[in-house]
Every structure is written in C-alpha cells, then in structure tokens.
Write a structure and sequence with these properties.
By secondary structure, the protein is mostly helical. The protein is built from 7 helices and no strands.
C-alpha cells in the first residue's frame, strides 16, 4: 500500500529499494548523467521541463512511486517538444492544435527529424532483445522469433501514444521498478535531441 511518508522518515531512502540491494543513488545519478542529457541546441523551456522530469525520477529514491510518475511525464515532455518543433499549421475553431502524439511523431518522422540512427541506445536494445529471445527459445524448445522488419521509429509511433493515453487516463496506480522507468527517460532524451541540431543557437 502506498502512503504519505512520515515526517521523521522524509529524507530516508524508500524501503522498497530493499528489493534492489545493488541499486544506489550514485548509480542512478551516473545513469541520468550519461544517458538523459539534452544538448544545448534544445530550447531552454524544453530542457527545463525535462530537468523537472529527471529530478522527479531521482526523488524516487526517497519516494518510490515517483519513478512511475517521471516515466509518465517523460511522454508529455516528448509531446511538448514535438509541438514546439513542429508548430501547428491549422487550428480548430477554438484555436487548439488537434494533432495527437501519434500525428506529431509521424510528422517528425516524415520530416526526417526522427531516424533509427538517431537513437544511440538502439544497438544495445536490439542485442539484449535478441539474447532474451534466444534464451526463451532454448527454454521453451521453439525457434527464435524472426527479426522484425518494423523500423524502431515506426514501433515508437505505434506504442508511445498508447502508453501516453494509458497514463493520461489511469484506472489504477501503477508501481514499476526504476530500471524500466529510466528506460523511458532515455528514449525521451534521444527523441528530443534529434529534433534540434546540437550546434543550433539557443
């Protein structure tokens, strides 16, 4: 059960971390510094928003549910960045941009802003997925799954909007380990970093 922390325990590590004895706050900071940094070409307001998301993730060390909340907000950061980079050419009668996250991702892909080559973590992801599938195949006695012909960006276009909508319209409080939640921040950083040139002026 999730509850409000007691005042005398406020700055103590969330006890849920006892299930991950090898995890340290220093390790979390190292991962964030290495994989979740936006370059200077990204507009300041987008970097500020993402820094809040990253900080929320780090505060998961004190309050475990913050990991999940940070993952949720990371998808909103992607949407915020896409709307900034691809201003609406048409608004509805109320002056609103009706494009969905899927629309924005598709537009970015079609404009050449999102490419598989722009995801530094992709090679490692594919290698890990292949090794996992081979292990499962050996255990289950089946042949490994054929390699997907779907591009990574196309896969994100299909899956990220579903996750975003699930987060925006929850039917229960989800609690997830810090590892997969960090992964969503990494993908977010890799998407946003592709939208602007690193050498662009602020």
């Amino acid at each position: 059960m999730v509850s409000v922390k007691k005042l005398e325990q406020f700055f103590e590590r969330d006890p849920t971390h006892e299930f991950f004895s090898a995890l340290t706050l220093e390790h979390l900071y190292e991962c964030i510094s290495q994989y979740c940094t936006l370059h200077e070409g990204v507009p300041e307001d987008i970097r500020d928003y993402f820094h809040v998301v990253v900080s929320l993730y780090l505060y998961g060390w004190l309050y475990y549910p913050f990991y999940m909340l940070a993952s949720e907000r990371s998808l909103f950061a992607v949407e915020l960045a896409l709307r900034k980079r691809l201003p609406a050419k048409k608004l509805d009668k109320k002056g609103r941009d009706r494009r969905s996250l899927a629309d924005l991702l598709r537009e970015a892909k079609d404009a050449g802003l999102l490419r598989d080559e722009g995801f530094p973590s992709l090679e490692n992801r594919r290698k890990n997925a292949q090794e996992l599938d081979e292990q499962i195949a050996r255990i289950s006695g089946r042949d490994p799954e054929p390699e997907s012909q779907l591009s990574y960006v196309e896969g994100l276009i299909q899956t990220l909007p579903q996750l975003r909508n699930r987060f925006a319209h929850p039917n229960m409080q989800l609690i997830m380990p810090p590892g997969p939640m960090l992964d969503s921040l990494i993908v977010t950083a890799e998407i946003i970093n592709q939208l602007w040139l690193a050498s662009a002026s602020k």
